[in-house]
Amino acid sequence: MKITIDGKKVEAKRWDTVLTAARRAGIAIPSLCQLDSLENVGACRLCMVEVNHPHWRGAKLVTACEYPVESGLEVITTSEEVLRLRRANLDLLLARAPESRRLQQMSAEMGLEQSGYVRPDKGTACILCMLCTRVCEKLGCNAIAPAGRGLDKRIDTPFGGYPDTCIGCGACAAICPVDCIEMTDTAKTRTIWGRTFEFVKCAECGTPVITVEYRDYAIAHRSLPADYYNECSDCKRRKLAVKFAKVGG
Ligand code: FES
Question: pTM for this structure?
Answer without folding.
Answer: 0.89
